[in-house]
Amino acid sequence: MPPYAEEHTGARIAHARKVRRLTQRELADLSHVSYSSLTKIEQGVMPASPSVIGALARALSVPVAELHGQPYLDELRQDQLDGLINPIREALNIYDLGPDPDVTPRALDELEADADKLCAQVRATNIKQVAAELPGLIHEATTAAHTESTDRSWQLLASTYRTAYDVTTKLGFPDLCTVALDRMDWAAQKASDPVLSGMRQYLRALAYLRASDYKTGKRLISLGMAALEQAEPGRVLDVVTGQLHLGAAVLAGRDQDEGAAEGHLTEAGRIAKRTGPAEKVHWLSFGPTNVGVHRVSVLAELDLYPEAVDQAQQLPIPDDWPPSRLAHHHAEVARAQMWTGRTDAAFKSLLAARKLAPQQTKYHPTVRETYAGLEAAKRRMPDSFSNYGSWLGV
Fold this sequence. Notes:
globular
């Protein structure tokens, strides 16, 4: 871990810029980020939005995760999560070795029930428990798939790889989440399952969104839509198609293409009216609520922060909506509130995210950037604000 990784994002940007022997003015010109904004970001006076961090990462030829400081290894060690990553890595690496003679898998019914339970636990934000149980399930599912070689067994294995993607993404390991997606694609092809293939392209597009490669993300959405053309009509197809439109909307918003974003949101809304709430279909949380939440996200990506806050205030959230998705929503609302000067409201949203999903929230880059923005106004913040910073490790 580089010695500067525990500093704020602006300090890491400054470090990367100096390594490349660029002046602030030169980096501003290369990234099309204003010189004034860049200087304030490097000083820690102003937080950097995801689109700005992406532009700077591209100009500096570094991964976005490096500027965020991910993975947050000291915090992972404190939470005893760092030791759970390598077993997942090892389980992903044995995908093509055939049946393991030392593993006797349970019946498919039991393995499927376990895989479904872990998906539910991810949505309930019990990340540590999932990370601990996942490697053993992947080993069993791998041997079962190679032994039975049925569509059902390969679908099961693909599901475990998808959970590996969820866990590694939430803990800030982008390289490992890419490996998990590659394994998911391999298993989906073995299962001849176009829905899983389409969903994998959606998840992959999200990885490129986080890496600020919007062009590639959009291409992946198109590939996902093409894969779904081979699927059987029905509610499952509708849900995955709708989710692809939501992913495309956020990509378009981050790329400042308001027209395209609105088009995808409209189509997703049309589909959601037909499907209704479908939170458990491939655990995508699709439905009218998710469309509304994505509209808030898109408005924030378009830097329309007052509109995002207003939209969030008008959005009814069901009591039983998945905690992981709701915590993410609170984090995004907090960012919009912070940019509109509503510091007290922003901190309350961060507290709500922490209460719902402490592990997920702690390792969320948006939470850390929002906290950094609020820190500049901490004289007006309650005493509990400093305690929150200690919890984050910043």
